[in-house]
Amino acid sequence: MTPPRTSSPVLVGRVAELAALLGAVAAQPSVALVEGEAGVGKSRLVRELLHRPEVAPLRVLTGFCQPLREPFPYGAVLDALRTVGGVLGRVPLSPVTGVLRPLLPEIADRLPDQPPRPEDPRQERHHLFRAVREVIAALGPVLLVVEDLHWADDGCRHLLRFLMADPPANLTVLVTYRREDAPGGMPLGSAYRPPAGVTGVVVELSPLDVAQVRDLTAAILDVEGVPVEFAARLHERTAGIPFVVEEMLRSLRDPDWRLLDEVEVPALLRDAMAERLDRLPTTGRRIAHAAAVLGVPASEALLAEVGAVEPDRARAALTHALHSGVLHEAEDARYGYRHSLAQQAVYDTMTGPERQRLHLRALAALEGAVPRPFMQLAEHSLRAGRLPDWLRHGEAAADRALEVGDASTATRLYQRLLDEATLTPADVDRLAVKLGQVARGGVDQHDPRTTLEWLLDDRRLSRAARGEVRMNLGFLLIRQFESTLQARVQLEQAVEELTDRPSLAMRARAVLGQPFIGSTPIAEHLRWMRVVDDYIAAAEDPEVRYSLLANEIGSRLSIGDASVVGELDGLPATSPDVEIRRHLARAHCNVADAAMLVGHFELARDFLTRGLRLTVGAGVPFTASTGQSTLIHLDWYSGDWGSLAARSTRLLEEYRELLPVASEASLVLGGLALARGDWDTAERFLADSGVRSVENAITPVALNGFAALSRLAFERGDLSRACAEADNGLDLMRRKGVWAWAGELAPAAVDAYRANGRVGDAAEVVEELSAGIADRDAPLALVALKICRALLAVGRDEDAVPLLREARRAADALGLAYYSALLSERIALCGLENGDEAAAVALGEVGDRFDALGASRDAARCRHLVRGAGVATPSRRGRRGYGNALSPREQDVARLLARGRTNREIADVLFLSPRTVEQHVARVLRKLGVTSRAELLT
What angle do CA 88, 89, 91 make, to 5 degrees? Predict the structure, then answer.
C-alpha cells in the first residue's frame, strides 16, 4: 500500500456548509461564523472556499490568532491589512486613517499623517475602528478571514464586532472559532446578531458520521472502498473528528489496518505522533520536541538551539520533520505544528524532566531576542519552575500589554501572577493596583467588573491597596453605567479605606459629587461637593486644584448655583504647564456645557470658544468632542439649523460609543426630526437619549428626551402617551431635584396635561418649578416657568395672550428662535379664536419662520390652520418656479417617501389632502427620474 496522503484531496461531508459560505460571499455586505471543536475541519473548509472561482474577484485578507502571542491588540485584523498598500491611493482616505500609521508601517506611506492621540481610550479605540473600516472600504470587494477567534485579544473581538455591526458594502467577514474556548462562550465577547441589510450565516461543523469517515478514509488512502467494519471502528475511536482521522490513517503501515479498541482518542493521537517521531532520526525528534515546547512557529536557528542540534545538521533534521508530516511551514521560514492537537500530543510524549530542560533552553535562547518576547519568556519561566523569573517576565509582559493597549492580555497575566501563593505582600499590592487600573478602564477586555470583584476578595491586600481597587471598581461602574447605586456604595467605602491617602480619596469624593448621572438626589451630591470645595480651597498644588475644579465648577453652575458666575473671572485663561492647561480646557468646556444647560447661552459660547482653543495641542480630544456636542446643542437652541443635522450625524457616527456625546447628538437629531414631522426617525433617535434607562443616562439629556417624546406623542394625537412620557420625565426630575434642568420638560408636561384635562397636575408642575428655581440662577427654566403659566391659563380658559407675549419676550431675550416661533403661533391662534383677522396673516408669517428654520411640519401646521380660517395668506417670500428642481414642499414629500411613508401618512404629517399629496408624489418621481416609489427606498 502506498503511503497515505497528508489529507484528503476532496472535501468530505461539508457540501451544505460550503454552499452556505459561498452564498454569504455572494451577498455582500455579509458575515459568516464557522464554529466547531478542535480538529473538526474549520480551516479546511475555509481553504476550500478560497479556492472556489466565486471567490476569485475578492481581495482575501487573512489573519490568524495565536495561543501564545505577544501583547498586540487587534493583531489578527492588522496582520491581515499589512499587504494592502499597493491598492491604497486610488480612493482618498480621511484623516482618521492616519491612526494606523504606527500600527501598519508596511502601508504607512499610503496613509494620511497621524492625528493627535486622544486622551480617552474609548475615543482612541473608536478612531482606530473607523480607520480600519475606511481602509477596507477603499479596497473593493474584500473577504476578511480571521482564524481561531477564540485565541484573539478582546480588542480584536471588539474591532470585528464593530465591523460586523456596520460592515462596508464591499465586505464579507468570516471568522472561525471554538465556542468552548471563547471567553464566556461568546467568540465576539458578547452576543451578535447581523443587523438589517447584512447577510449572516452561522456554520456549525459537527463531527463526521460513519459514512463520511469511510469516504474520507478512501480519499486519503486513495482506494476504491473501505470495509464498513473498519470505518465504524475508526469512527468510534476518533469520534469522527477529521483531523484525528487523518492522523490515525497516516500512522497505518500494514494492510490489516488494526486499531486498538480500548484506546481513547487523545491517547491514540499521542501514540500515533509518538510512532511518527520514532521514525525520525534523533536530530529530527529534537527539532520536533523543540517546536512542541516553543508553542509558536519558530525559525530553523531557534529550533536548533532549543533542541540542541548542531547548526550544520539542523537543516537536514528539519527537512526530515517536514517530509514526515510532523512539522509544516506555518509562515515564511518559520515552522511548527499543523494543529494544536498535534503539538500537544508531541508535548505529552515527553517526560516532565525533558520538558523542563527544553523550557530552560528556550528561556536562554529567547533572553537576547530583540524586541524581548516577554510573553514567551514568562511562559517558559513558569513551565521551567523558575518562579522569580516568571514573576519578573510575567509582570513585564503585562506592563507591555497595557502600554500597547492590549488590556485583555494584561488582565489575564496580572490575574495569573496574583494566583501565585509565594508572592510577598508588596508584590500582591503592586499587582493588584495595576490590575485594578487596567480593569477600571473597561476597554477591550472581557468582564472587567468580575476582575475587580475578584481582587476585592483577595485577603492578602493591604487596606490602602484595597481602597484603590474599590475606587477603580466604582469608577468602572459609573463609566460603564452598570449601576450607579452600586458605584456609589463602592466609592463611599473606598473613601473610608483611603483615609491615609487623602488626595486619592478626594478623587472618589469628586465623582460622588457629580450630579449628571441617574436619579441620585441632588442633596446627596451636594454633601460631597461641599467636601471637595473645602479641599480645593486649601489645595496648594495647582495641578490638583484645577483637576478637581474642572469638575466642580461645572457641576455647581449646572444646578443653578448663583455664586459661580462671579467666580469664573478667577479661572485662568491658560497656563504654560501642559497638565494644568488640559485641566483648564476641561474646566472651560464644562462651564460652557453647564451654562448651556441652564440658559446662559452667551456665556456658554464664550467659554466654549476659549475651551476649544485650549484643547488645540493639549492632547485632550475627548474634551474637544464634548465641546462639539455642546456646540450642536447651543445651535439647536439658537435656531442655527442649516447644517445642524449633518454636523450632528457626523458627531454621532464618530463618537457613538461615548455616551455623553452620543446621547446629546441623538437628542438634537430627534428634535430636528420631530420639527420636520419625521416621527419614526425622531422616535429612534430620542430612544437613544437615555430615556429608556434613566439610571444609566446623562440626566439633563434624558429629561429633554422625555420632553421631546411627549411633544412627539402630542403631535401624533396620542395624548395618553404624551402624558405618560411627561410623567416619566417628571418622576426623574422629582427624584433628582434639579429644577434648573426643567427648561424643556416642564412646558411639554403642562401642555400635555392641560390638553388631556389634567389641569390640576399642570398647576402642580407650575408650583414645583416656581419653588425649585426660586433661588437658582437658571434663565432657561425661568422662561419655561413663564411658558407654563401661559399654557395653564389656556387650560383654564383665561386670557393667556399677555402671558404668552411675556414668555415670548423672555425667549427672544435668550435667542430661543424655535420656541419664540412656537409661542408666536400660540398667540396667533388665540387671535384667530377671538376673530382677529390679522391673526391669520401673523400665523402665515410664523409659518415662514418655521420654514426658514427647517421645521417643515410646524410650517405645514400653520398654513393648515390659516386655510381652515378661510384666509388667503401668500408667503412673504413669494412664489417662484423650480423647473426640474424640487420645491421645498416636494423636498418634504420626497424625504417622507424615502422613509416608506404612504400617501395618507404624508398627508397627516404635512396637513395636506391625499389628492394634493398624490400630485406632489407624481412630480417628485418625475423630477428624480424614477418610475416608482420603491426605487426611492433602494
Answer: 95
The pairing of strands 328-331 and 334-336 is: antiparallel
Burial of 137 (0-12, 13-18, 19+ CB in 10 A): middle
* pLDDT tens per residue, range 663-701: 999 999 999 999 999 989 999 999 999 999 898 889 999
Q: What is the rounded distance in angstroms from the CA atom of residue 842 to the CA atom of residue 850?
A: 12
Whether residue 316 contacts residue 283, with contact meaning beta carbons closer than 8 Å, is answered with yes
Q: Which residues of 558-577 are buried (b: 16+ CB within 10 A; e: fewer)?
A: bbbbeebeeebeebeeebee
- The SS3 call for residue 801 is helix
Helix axes 228-238, 265-278, angle to 10 degrees: 100
pLDDT tens readout for residues 566-586: 899 889 999 998 889 989 999
Residue 865 and residue 829 in contact, taking contact as beta carbons nearer than 8 Å: yes
CA dihedral 493, 497, 500, 501 (to 10 degrees): -60
Answer yes or no: are the C-beta atoms of 804 and 588 closer than 8 Å.
no
Contact 513, 525 (CB under 8 A): yes
| pLDDT value of position 398 | 92
- Note the pLDDT of residue 877: 45
Q: What is the mean pLDDT of the chain?
A: 87
For residue 49, which of 11, 88, 98 has the smallest C-alpha distance? 11
Instruction: Encode pLDDT of 251-294 as tens digits.
Output: 665 545 554 444 444 666 777 778 778 889 999 999 999 999 99
464: left (phi over 0), alpha (psi -120 to 50) or beta: alpha
Please give the residue that has the higher pLDDT: either 200 or 930: 200
Residues contacting residue 111 through CB under 8 Å, at least 6 positions apart: 88, 93, 97, 98, 100, 101, 104
Alpha-carbon span 884 to 938, nearest angstrom? 22
pLDDT score of 882 more than 70: no
Of 405, 362, 410, nearest to 382 by C-alpha is 362
CB count within 10 Å of CB 662 equals 22
pLDDT at 863: 84
d(CA 827, CA 903): 32
